[in-house]
């Protein structure tokens, strides 16, 4: 196998156009995408500046006192009366909304000014503020009555916007919709008597944290995305070179030397895998050095990255073997052409190399997770986020299953002996 | 040593080789002569076990090559028509790779590479990348790769196509030496008549997938023993005289050459004096006359009615 590996390596190294396609191109693209989309990927809110005028027509404390008075007069047992009174203090909707707007993250985007109704109307007309949020009269009392006593229709916040459909007003509308949804959920829990402790534990307006792990930066995402995409091209390149070997009778010369066909195919698989592994390693190291994407000095981190790369590289090797088999069998380079021209792009799209698949239909995500690049991307991202090895087991299993399937098919498809050449 | 027994091969219903019979004795140099598309390359692929024939058998020392291809693969060196080399590697790297494919030991291989490089005259440029070579140099490396494992039979498929006269002469001389001095058995295919005449003891002439004639060069030329060829050059073209000669009842065939006419006449017909009478009548100035024995080209023309490179 060593002669095949050395030969293929030398050929690849001396082909400048291949080096550009396999190393320079993904490196440039990861730089461009990582830089251009960092704002979107990392939730950069520095460009969002919403001026919000708040008009307080509601008297919160008076509203709470009025609600507690109504509870006392309603004839509920003393224990329930105490609980409802406490809940009214805790779930004061106007205070909760104000707290949300004062949250440090939101306050970077939304600048709140308290105004009188007339001033606020003038300001929104003049374009000095983007929106006016009005707490109407009896807002607290009516809302608590509806929430906790199921009494009345509640109250409605009023949002007056200067530019319907603009990004700023859409953000405000979404924010308020989210707030009311959460409030409704919390009140439903409280009203159902699900337990004051649980209800109290739900934070409204905060940032929901899905995991304790580090978020992935755009540069990290696209370094991985482009590396797992461009590594697939190695398979196509090796297969197209195998086709040239067949065309120029080099393959015949190898077979006439007594070399078994399975050795030739195994040589191609190993060469592809090793070249793919080197390509991935160079791209990640370059990305770490130039873009500061990954911590260079963390030994355990790089062991994980290299481990995932090795699994992916073997898979690429097996795909290279499959494409080689098809090229030799059909005496045509159509298979490698279709792979590099169409399938790699499809895999990259479905596997999430271009953008995260969160909003995509489920079948695309499911398909993408079974593509070698998609599964590898899952594994790399989990590793970068700090997940343990056990969390990588499934994507690595997926890559391994694809590798085994590709290897078996490639050996079945490869012509055994005496292929036709005239 | 090697026998091709009634071998036929068809691709997609078209007979490429039909009822081929051929034998090769140890130390012989055999020519397989025929125009492009005659079936020479397919025959070579069948002999070397790369293609399975539709019918017939190929035997090496009495054993079927079709059933056990490994035996022939050890003893043949194939020089394909294409340059079967890695253009991005040097000659040395190519030879090293192919030697390793033959399972040659590292030390033995290094010495062998130097030997074959010396043989093909590329000692000084063996470390250069093949794609920087001229066509003739590439052809020489192509031959060197077939000689690495000391084959008993060297099978060459048009090894001089598209190269300069010097390289061609060098290669032909080298093959002659391998055959005569080293006793290597050679099967040489070409559509260049003069190469086969120069190199080969026996010749098989192929056309449309069939052997149309075979034998030693002399045996083949004896097919035309009843004829001789007269070349007459003139100072200029004389259309009326040409027409008269081409239609002369005693002249078998007449064709125009670069400087005059080529006449095929019955041997011993003493026609020359009558030809001169005609030229005098037309006041034609004769610049050269040559009476020659037939060549293999003439034999091919006689057998097929067309020239080799038509």
Automatic annotation (TrEMBL), chain A:
<feature type="transmembrane region" description="Helical">
    <location>
        <begin position="392"/>
        <end position="414"/>
    </location>
</feature>
<feature type="transmembrane region" description="Helical">
    <location>
        <begin position="335"/>
        <end position="355"/>
    </location>
</feature>
<feature type="transmembrane region" description="Helical">
    <location>
        <begin position="20"/>
        <end position="41"/>
    </location>
</feature>
<feature type="transmembrane region" description="Helical">
    <location>
        <begin position="301"/>
        <end position="323"/>
    </location>
</feature>
<protein>
    <submittedName>
        <fullName>ABC-2 type transport system permease protein</fullName>
    </submittedName>
</protein>
<feature type="domain" description="ABC-2 type transporter transmembrane">
    <location>
        <begin position="19"/>
        <end position="412"/>
    </location>
</feature>
<keyword id="KW-0812">Transmembrane</keyword>
<keyword id="KW-0472">Membrane</keyword>
<dbReference type="GO" id="GO:0005886">
    <property type="term" value="C:plasma membrane"/>
</dbReference>
<keyword id="KW-1133">Transmembrane helix</keyword>
<dbReference type="Pfam" id="PF12698">
    <property type="entry name" value="ABC2_membrane_3"/>
</dbReference>
<dbReference type="InterPro" id="IPR013525">
    <property type="entry name" value="ABC2_TM"/>
</dbReference>
<feature type="transmembrane region" description="Helical">
    <location>
        <begin position="265"/>
        <end position="289"/>
    </location>
</feature>
<dbReference type="GO" id="GO:0140359">
    <property type="term" value="F:ABC-type transporter activity"/>
</dbReference>
<dbReference type="InterPro" id="IPR051449">
    <property type="entry name" value="ABC-2_transporter_component"/>
</dbReference>
<feature type="transmembrane region" description="Helical">
    <location>
        <begin position="221"/>
        <end position="244"/>
    </location>
</feature>
<keyword id="KW-1003">Cell membrane</keyword>
From TrEMBL, chain B:
<dbReference type="InterPro" id="IPR003593">
    <property type="entry name" value="AAA+_ATPase"/>
</dbReference>
<dbReference type="InterPro" id="IPR025302">
    <property type="entry name" value="DrrA1/2-like_C"/>
</dbReference>
<keyword id="KW-0547">Nucleotide-binding</keyword>
<dbReference type="Pfam" id="PF13732">
    <property type="entry name" value="DrrA1-3_C"/>
</dbReference>
<dbReference type="InterPro" id="IPR027417">
    <property type="entry name" value="P-loop_NTPase"/>
</dbReference>
<feature type="domain" description="ABC transporter">
    <location>
        <begin position="2"/>
        <end position="233"/>
    </location>
</feature>
<dbReference type="InterPro" id="IPR017871">
    <property type="entry name" value="ABC_transporter-like_CS"/>
</dbReference>
<dbReference type="InterPro" id="IPR003439">
    <property type="entry name" value="ABC_transporter-like_ATP-bd"/>
</dbReference>
<dbReference type="GO" id="GO:0005524">
    <property type="term" value="F:ATP binding"/>
</dbReference>
<protein>
    <submittedName>
        <fullName>ABC-2 type transport system ATP-binding protein</fullName>
    </submittedName>
</protein>
<keyword id="KW-0813">Transport</keyword>
<dbReference type="GO" id="GO:0016887">
    <property type="term" value="F:ATP hydrolysis activity"/>
</dbReference>
<keyword id="KW-0067">ATP-binding</keyword>
<dbReference type="Pfam" id="PF00005">
    <property type="entry name" value="ABC_tran"/>
</dbReference>
